[in-house]
């Protein structure tokens, strides 16, 4: 063992530059890989834990009070996958609020802070003030993405009327607290809620919360519920009906994080592949250059296995050192990424150090390095001492000479280059792979930067739909055409897109639909396949609805 260690130390001394370069490559690859694993698996697991810790519902159903009945609760409680149900009164309506100084329209519910609520009760994040009349608890996303502060004014516009509240705290809201689904829950006092319901009696709704034995089936439970109780309802009765299921919650909170994590892990894999290819070239070249020394070692008694072990030990130590440093650096970077994710996820996530992900990262990097090192060093078994002492030149070479210089016409430098190209086919293929991987990483990084930073509005429109500078809600649809015409006459207006949101019954399930006269004026597109409707008998639907209904284009 001492002889192997001495040989390893000698290899380190002779190839300091190669070891240092590999250390840097492995450090960066391990850092990105560990970050990607923590983001992809850690954040999703954290959110699922918070759902259970806050006893949040797996399915939430909101509908107008006239659509509610005790029979619905009995039906839900008798369902084999239902564990617990809860129902209480809320006020639900569409409101206009300010997000970072811009007015935006969201669906919302207003809950009584004193109401008994066992599923996801109001849980405050950070400092708070007593909730008095005229004050309000808002979701944490209003602070992270909305730019609001504790004690600040919070204006709410309902049907053209303005109401001003004072923010008394921020809540950790699971079902109704993210920007992707555009549905928020606010907590106010009993007196304010009664005033609100008296002024807008059509807003009185029932919120039904359900926890299930298997939350993955939450969307199927809602479809069964809708088919049982909504199928016979006329369209006018479906003026305010919404649902939030477990699958949608997970997707809305972890979608952007998962995309980011996958891109980071792909970059880590590309860097690791490049470093392994460079390392393989280095080992092969070193073996060819040290062929005489290897023959001497064999002549004095070193076995091929001992020489290979010294090479594996050298690069294995570099991999362990680089991987450990990369994991340490990622531990300093992950908290900064977690703070950036607060604006998208509206969750405070402190991942800390995860020994499991660190072990997976270190094992992956070390295994890849040792595997490539062993494959490259296997040729040592073919080094006979006598042949190696002669520089590896055998008496005969039976390979075909594809380009004999004495018979092939052409420029001598070009012919020599072609001979070298054919001689080192494997090496040239590896160089092509390295260039392709680096080109892919470069083009992908530039494309992502352009898509997200330079063309931010198009990116948002792709994820969240049409992104307008100003949104106007019109109570009377008959005035829409006149308003659009007046807006188009303004010199500072470039384009106007009008649409109407309605709730319809499709395949015995209530769905939210948007109708417009001309979709060609839209600048954003959420299409995965096909096109937007052109004729009166056409419709564009989401993948979830098409899968559930068993439909296709």
Q: What does this protein structure show overall?
A:
This protein is an alpha+beta fold. It folds into four domains: 191 residues, no CATH class; 193 residues, no CATH class; 59 residues; 73 residues, no CATH class. 50% of the residues lie in helices and 17% in strands. The strands form three sheets. A seven-stranded mixed sheet has the order 8-9-3-2-10-1-11. Strands 4, 5, 6 and 7 form a four-stranded mixed sheet that branches. It has a two-stranded antiparallel sheet with strand order 12-13.
Tally the helices.
16
Structural class comes to alpha+beta
Unreliable stretches (pLDDT < 50, length at least 5) are: none
SSE topology string: HHEHEEEEHEEEEHEHEHHHHHHHHHEEH
Return the domain count: 4
N- to C-terminal distance = 68 Å
**What characteristic shape results from the CA principal axes?**
elongated
Percent helix range = 40-55%
Mean pLDDT: 80
Strand order of the largest sheet: 8-9-3-2-10-1-11
The amount of beta strand, in percent, is 15-25%
